[in-house]
Description:
Elements: H1 2-13, E1 18-21, H2 24-31, E2 39-42, E3 47-51, H3 56-62, E4 67-70, H4 75-86, E5 90-94, H5 100-107, E6 111-115, H6 118-123, H7 128-149, H8 158-171, E7 176-177, E8 182-185, E9 205-211, E10 213-215, E11 218-219, E12 222-228, H9 233-252, H10 259-272, E13 284-286, E14 293-297, E15 310-313, E16 316-319, E17 323-326, E18 329-333, E19 338-340, E20 350-351
Parallel strand pairs: 1-5, 3-4, 5-6, 12-20
Antiparallel strand pairs: 1-2, 2-3, 7-10, 8-9, 9-12, 10-11, 13-14, 15-18, 16-17, 18-19
Amino acid sequence: MIKFDKVQALIERENLDALIIMSDHNRRYLSRFTGSSGALVITSNQRYLLSDFRYNVQAQQEATEFEFVLQEKGLLESIVNLLNETGAKRVGFEGEHVNYNTYKLLNDSFELIALTGEIEEIRMIKNSEELKLIKEACRIADQSYEHILTFVQPGMTELEVKNELEAHMTKLGASGPSFDTIVASGYRGALPHGVASDKVIESGDMVTLDFGAYYKGYASDITRSFGVGAVSPEMENIYNIVLESQLKALAEIKAGMTGKEADSISRDVISANGYGKNFGHSLGHSFGLEVHEQPGLSQKSNTVLKPGMCITIEPGIYVDGLGGVRIEDDAVVTENGLEKLTHSRKELFIIE
């Protein structure tokens, strides 16, 4: 498989005898093992999965391309014993995922080489199997949004909306939400990450929902804003500006562009309409096994977009004391532009 070819190339490039993978998402990505405890040890000619007796059967069923090693004592001790058996001396590890105590124990026995973001870089490009799961996670989010528009009424709290939304995603097949659902109504819409509260949704409020589903380990991430009763002319104008900027980005972003260039497409529209200072976050980010992955679409990102990257496009405007609007779609970068993965309505919808 391509991902193993890239891992082997990494081992050769860094002149490693072995590579240890301990982070949950990287372990799952490489092995398909979904258990909560374990580690991978990969050498130039062998792949091992270590875990405890709870996952004896599960590990061997899921991680078919790995030799299962049952840890008899602690996980770290088992890793050390296995590395010694392979004769490894120079060992790579995930620098951003290993704590100091683990590093110290391993460093007593091996020459450690910290690798930062190397496996995450391999994960940037999604294969057809991953895209199939991501598309299903997006379908669940789309259908759940259409459902929630029939549910929301003035007098409900944001938490009631959140609970109904997450329950419906689960009903459609999600294992759960991919992050803490945001429901921000009225003045709280000015909070880009205003997770659901006990605030009552009132007539005249603009409501922003930012949510996503996990489906078989893969995430979706969608944002929609809608009105409950007639919204103010300023909020309607803000909505139209955000929508224009989002549609422009969806139409113009393409492979070969940097994250910074992609961000500017949408940001320039918002700035030209006088709300540049009210768009304080990046245009988007990548997603997959995690809802936030690399690369980002920000004013600082020089990473070049490539076909197979899954990204969000989510411009927003936030005005303190008034409210906010954000519109977000998921998309995959193709040779010719973007293929949109979320399809629920984006015209300004008003719940009467």
